[in-house]
Write a structure and sequence with these properties.
This protein is α/β, with parallel strands linked by helices and about 375 residues long. It has helices spanning about 1-20, 65-70, 90-95, 110-125, 145-160, 205-215, 230-240, 240-250, 265-270, 290-300, 355-365, and strands at about 30-35, 80-85, 100-105, 130-135, 140, 165-170, 180, 195, 200, 220-230, 275-280, 285, 310, 315-320, 325-330, 335, 340-345. It has 2 domains: about 1-285, Spore Coat Polysaccharide Biosynthesis Protein SpsA, Chain A (Alpha-Beta Complex), CATH 3.90.550; about 290-369, no CATH class. It has 11 helices and 17 strands. The strands form 4 sheets. Strands 1, 2, 3, 4, 6, 7, 8, 9, 10 and 11 form a 10-stranded mixed β-sheet that branches. The longest helix is centred in the N-terminal third of the chain and has 17 residues, at about 1-20.
Amino acid sequence: MKNLLTIILVGSLMQIVCADQLPTDSKNVYAVILAGGSGERLWPLSRLQFPKQLLSLEEQKTFLDQAIERVSTFIPTSHIMVNTTRNHAERISHAVGDRVSDIIIEPGARNTGPAILYCCLRLHQKDPDAVVVFLPADHYIPVSTKFVEFLEHAITYAMHHDRMVLLGLQPRYPATGYGYIEYDPVLVSKYNGVVPVKKFHEKPAYDVAQAYVTAGNMLWNAGIFCAKVSVFLDEFRIHAPEMYQGVSNSLHDIDCYHQVMSESVDYAIMEKSGRISVLPADFPWCDIGNVEIFLSLKEQKRSTSRRVIAYESQNSLVDVPDRLVALVGVDDLCVVDTGEILLVAKRQEAEKVKMIVQTLKDMKAYEYL
């Protein structure tokens, strides 16, 4: 019965979404693609000189290229921006060319809370009536039609309500690398698809994630959200006043930015706000969060055979060009060779790759970062 209810709700929601396109008067709608991350969990594929948003699968367009193309289908180039840090600004600028209107360069890397606040303050100067959607550059969405329909619906709702709207994905398996959003499915039709968030849940253990998948009232937090810029700014003023003051001061004195607390937007405002809603969505999606996820996708897209011999070995992911790799008696490995760096990690421990990056920082071995 629970599964049937979910199918009915998703089907009904798709009818709502398809009928609720962006209004013709959407001159104040903007998109900001977040491309400032360093991708430490994707090391050594992602480096300071070649960040994760510039990676691609099997010679396809980069993740940043794909993110720009997706929003370009319904938002004009003049209203598309990319946010990044000074470390990546030159490379990002070269990569995007004239396909966006502006590159918002943060004075430093202070996590998504200050980054989003900085973008909102800059955008508010340009257009006080702006409605903005934030989208990470490192997501993989192979078929974008449904994605665009859901996102248009979320933006339209945000245009007419003083609330922040998240996209929440119907969980397809017990993922432990994503945060979850709890909501009430019964309210979907009452609120025209966009429902109040009941609670945010941290990345769970595997058994907890299994329970979330079968519960029917839990969604993956896709990290895609929108609201009026004025709503974002109000929430920062209320829930993160020190961050708001510090980032505001940085518009006139860059050094102030480096004193701002490094904190995610989830912790800064989302989990504290009483004006947060979620749109349950259903489209192909993957957050390229670590090297195991990236290699899994690359394996699916691989058009040429690998030179790998495995004896009494199973389920390993190998990305070693121009070399024969022999595996004997080992299972569930990620093996990556960039020429100067060889990484060997257990697939289920891929999140811990960032600890190697921290060790390299402590050693001041910057040539490997």
